[in-house]
Design a protein that fits this description.
40% helix, 11 helices, five-stranded parallel β-sheet, elongated, 248 residues, four-stranded mixed β-sheet
Length: 248
């Protein structure tokens, strides 16, 4: 329930459109709805502005479906990260409007389209191999109501690729830098733009990349100002933080 929905609910009770008994029934599941496999936080949107997101990894398909069904019953938009094609096919049977970004492994179900921001988020990636993280970030940012633009394969190995798009990247309110290998892209971007840079290290790289640890440490140790760093491959977290900045 969002703040506006809560205010509207209070108005309907006050005006008599809803009876006291209906109000008790409506509030029965607050502050959470226990569905057995999970306790769904029904007040998160009221506190934070955005409802609960379903992290699909390590959940069974049935568990994801059960949680999504309860959220969808209230006509709340649904975002499922780290999921798969089989879950999508089952979700689509219940919610035909569901969309699946296979590269990013993200399912979104929208009952109402959010109004997009006038300012935009730029997602800049070092290489094509970072695409899965880029798509997770992109789908999350769009789900949260942000105009979002992707600038792919613009790593420092060919700096001219980044420079060619620099004017448009500089127009963003916040920049997400996605890079594996040595993770240098975030430092280069932070030295070229005035907007905050959120760095996402990816697990892309040869052995000494250590599954993204090398890029993570490089980003944390950057000498450039204005960089914050999220966890390895955490496109969702980067986009969520970028959305908070973009909505200020």
């Amino acid at each position: 329930m969002t703040r506006d929905e809560a205010l509207n609910f209070i108005r309907t009770v006050k005006s008599g459109e809803k009876s006291e008994r209906e109000a008790i029934e409506f509030l029965r599941d607050f502050p959470f709805s226990d569905v057995g496999c999970a306790k769904i936080d029904t007040q998160r949107a009221l506190r934070n502005g955005t409802g609960e997101v379903i992290y699909g990894a390590n959940k069974t398909d049935d568990e994801i479906l059960q949680i999504a069904s309860v959220i969808g019953e209230k006509n709340e938009n649904i975002l499922i990260t780290r999921t798969n094609e089989n879950v999508f096919e089952r979700i689509r049977e219940i919610f035909p409007q569901a969309n699946f970004n296979a590269r990013g492994r993200v399912i979104s179900v929208k009952f109402k389209e959010p109004a997009l921001t006038q300012s935009y988020i730029a997602i800049v990636s070092a290489g094509t191999a970072d695409g899965a993280v880029v798509e997770e970030a992109y789908e999350t940012a769009r789900f949260l109501g942000n105009d979002t633009r992707k600038f792919s394969d613009a790593g420092v190995a060919g700096l001219h690729r980044l420079v060619a798009k620099l004017d448009e990247i500089r127009g963003a309110k916040v920049v997400i830098a996605v890079a594996g290998m040595e993770g240098a892209l975030a430092s280069v971007l932070a030295g070229l733009v005035s907007a905050p840079v959120i760095a996402v290290p990816t697990s892309v790289g040869y052995g000494a990349n250590f599954g993204g640890v090398a890029a993570l440490l490089a980003m944390l140790n950057s000498c450039a100002n204005g960089i914050s760093v999220v966890n390895i491959d955490n496109g969702f977290g980067a986009a969520y933080n970028a959305s908070l900045i973009n909505h200020l």
